[in-house]
Model the fold of this input.
Amino acid sequence: MPYSFLVASWGGPGHLGPTLTAARQLRANGHGVRFIARADAREPVEVAGFDFATWQREPRFTPIAKSSNPLEYAYDNLLFGPAAARGADTLDEIKRIPTDGLLTDTALFGSVLAAEAACIPCALLSPTISLRPLPGVPPIGSGLPAPCTPAERIRIEEANSQFTIVMNKWLPMLNEARASLQLARCGHVLELFNRPARLLIAMSAAFDFPADSLPGNVRYIGPLLDTSDWSKPWAFSWPHGSDRPRALVSFSTTNQDQADVVQRTVNAIGHIEMDAVVTLGPALKDTSLRAPANVTFLPSAPHDLVMKEVTLVVTHGGHGTVSRALSHGLPLLVMPMGRDQGDIAARVEACGAGLVLEPTATEADIAATIRRLIEEPQFHAEARRLERIMTAEISKNSLVSELEQIVHP
Done:
């Protein structure tokens, strides 16, 4: 039976791609799908063939954060602060067109409240490490490895406890947003994650750190890899044939001041008998970079096609790029620059499918690390192991079945 789904997407590059993939999967199974997101997401959503609505209300909130901590800034400006406005807009859209279920980015707290107010089933979609703390798993943003000793377990418990305490400071703001939608107050901020029918983590369970237990509504569904419709066609002739190792170098599509680390990386590759392509993306579009003879700069390229022809990937550690590389059986050099990238890097290192360097690493260290990834077979073996697992996960289309279950139990 076909259902009507509304997808609420945060809209940034790392979030819009997975939600578009989810929408395509739902459409392929006969369901109707439309979007609500920020205005700059309109073009890619409509090009993909989905109806689109955008936010109408301007958020009004009182900042709580007392420091420049990035996560606290996000709580103020992205998560809790806009919740009332986003909730009202989402509720309007649910009322405008009959809606059977809501799939919302886990960071759009207001949309979660709208589903509750409209009495329709809701699934949260996490395109990366779970924002909801999971028992025994380091909280997002910590960059901590999985615990192996009793002391490390205590450290993780303390980190999760502190993470929750800080988040709970925004409970009054959350309850103001709830009151604006005529919803009863919450006693704890974690109710945001416990009340929806599902929290869908769009990453491989084999890649994530194992939790001691999972809340009843949490499911791993495997990565949702987008089709990169915005990238230019791939038609490239490698200068030295197939006898030499090859790398794809890809840092963030958004600005993270990555020009310097990209330059040091290509300088390092210039000293190795290999070839590489660098996809610059919008962030480096107007940046002057120097390429050695064995490196080619491209504005963009479809990574799935490029990854079929390379030996390894060098990246900042965005979950989409890392998951795509692993789904092709490619080892990684990760140089995290912020956000959740340190968490992703810790998982790459823990599963043995790659190595991690600070983004300030020297050219010599970068070159030595790339040589290790080329020469030491264990990295390729672990990446291929994860490729087999991810291929099976992706083929299951778990997201569709989970959403159908919550709409028609």
